[in-house]
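Our platform keeps sequence and structure together, in a single record for each protein. This encoding replaces a full spatial description with a residue-level series of whole-number codes. We quote a single record here, exactly as it is kept in our systems:
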Amino acid sequence: MEVTVIGAGLAGSEAALQLAKRNIKVKLYEMRPDKTTGAHKTGDCAEFVCSNSLGAFDTTNASGLLKKEMELLGGELIKIAYECKVPAGNALAIDREGFSEKVNKKILENPNITLIRKEITEIPQTPTIIASGPLTSPELAESIKKFTNNDHLYFFDAIAPIVEADSINFDIAFRQNRYNKGDADYINCPMNKEQYEKFYEILTTAPRIELKEFEKNAKFFESCLPVEVLASRGKDTLRFGPMKPVGLIDPRTEEESYAVVQLRQDNSAKTLYNIVGFQTNLKWGSQKELIHSIPGLENASILRYGVMHRNTFINSPKLLNPTLQTRAREDLFFAGQLTGTEGYTESIASGLLAGINMAKFINNVPLLMLPQITMLGALTHYITNPEHDKFQPINSNWGILEKIELPKKERKNKKLKAELLSNRSIEFLSGVIV
């Protein structure tokens, strides 16, 4: 039997590879580069769009535990991500071009996968995984809407600008990780109060790209807010968010600045850096003025401006089981950000689970339903919980896991709690055969 996978992004690529290694033939459809999304730049499989970071890799971090779970479950893309790792402190950041190239090669060389460059506009009536992503084409989105008999929900995702490393002024900028942990992977641009106030004035008065009529009532996802939206919440909001100076001491002055803009390595060659937390919908001319107002970036060569785009996700609590199988049709699965899992790591993980479960469905064996003591299990249970009234996308976090009891005197010990939750999941998954 053959399976159709729609979308060769992170989730679709992972799902296809999971099926292929179980000797199931896959037709993997990708509309790019013939039809673009407005956010993607290439036609490559598994292209990273917004950031090049998969988040923390330490298993005492929720995102780090999810990565470890993917390894234990035989994830393919997480292996490639570690092969393409670039320095980013405690985060797993990757050379995005190198990553996509490796995923492309693995898919094209797999005899069980046929990559077809074609847009799918109707849901096939054969076994299918829909992983078309948050930028699903309007035609396919309409088909999904008819199948689900539910309106789609929308939120916005904003992309941060990238600058050329050689154009950064290191007479002002300095390399350092927060609290000096690990190697100095981040570039920091310090600001005094006067410089910050000038920056804030430009940011809050700059013109933004006008939203289309149908986008005006859409919601932002809280963890990926445009920097101008954060700034609108108060003058010091950025200083306690992406521009917080805590733990960053300028080695030349031995002082903590009033605010700090951080840049993170974006490619293996260390020639490109993205501005951390600077997702934005400002017009490009305003972005240029804003970036050049940052000390150390006054002559920065901007290789990519920020953009903002609408993301689409289904009402998963009404439509899906925790196996990612639709309740209405047993041979149809959804995966990726279309399900309401937010984040690159979460997208890959859902593709992993959908691929495993589609294979189990094809082979007529019980599907894998992970318990809520695992991060992936808790995530899929959360997004498919029918009790949700106002469902919004979510990423991995400790709050969705099944609770663990600690002695009264240790209940505020967050590190111990994270270690115990993490160890419990790893121990369970170490015995799971997929």
